[in-house]
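Teaching soon. Got one?

===
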Amino acid sequence: MKIFEGKTPKERRNLIIIMVAAPLAFLGIVYNLGFFSSKKPTTKAKSTATKNNLATPPTASVIEPQDIRELEALQPVSYSPAVFRTDLALGRNIFSYYVPPPRSTGTPTQVVAEVTPTPEMPTPVPPSIILASLSPSSVFARTKDFQLLASGDKFTSDTRIYLNNQELPTQYVSPQQLKTNVPASLITAAGARAVTVRTPDNTLFSNQTSLNVMPPPVPQYTYVGLVGSRNPRTGDTAVLKPQAEGNRNNDLLSVQRGDTVGGRFILNNISANTLELTDKELGIKHTLPFIESRTPGSSGYNQQTLNNRLPSQQLSTDADDEGEYEEDEEEEPPKKP
């Protein structure tokens, strides 16, 4: 054949193989495409099945014993990612990638701090009543009941005077004056007392003013000695030592019952332990305790010390008192028969 002319035996053999293998390959392709199959086309089978489904109701499929054995052979798998490669070092995560930061626009971001709003304080309501002054504006503590006069403006018959938020019986005088009696129980101690004028329901109220309660004056003496007497007319004599800073000579003062000490304190009673005095202006009673001598073991000043330190009118001794008492008895007129 001309196709084999000029060819070597090896080339001729290769040509023969190609010529035989090419038709066989073509036939295999055509067979696989189904040109030589005796089955009907798929489209017709589908159309026939659709018609049968419309005509007859569907029937339950039958599971063959072989299919059951295949299902029994299947086993569930428990997947836990933490179990795998626990003994190996973790490698690079292929799902992680670099996320670049957002580009700056050139304008710096301003951080605004949250500011807590300050609650607004309510505006105080101005008083509807004016309280200008008190008379008296100051009193001494421990004094008796006294009358208090409040002066101001816009007083009504319904307004009352309050002392430390305690209502007092108030007498309405005029729109500018109110009167009340303050009991002694409210001024037993020194200190300021708040005074206001208002109605009981607090619809009308005034500004606040103060009543000054001052500590009362006290005797500036120390009870240091007692000289007894047998004369019932004179009685015992108390020895007082002034507490004034100018008394550098330790001058002593002798007083008896009824005497006035310091110009305002009347001596009411003398005992071995205390002296009782009354302020003749305020009516306040004071008690002076007996103060023993500064010398240990002694009980106050002795008679000689008192005679040396008392003024020129020295105290009479017991003998003098006794003689004076006897002379008084002799001067008594004789009784008529």
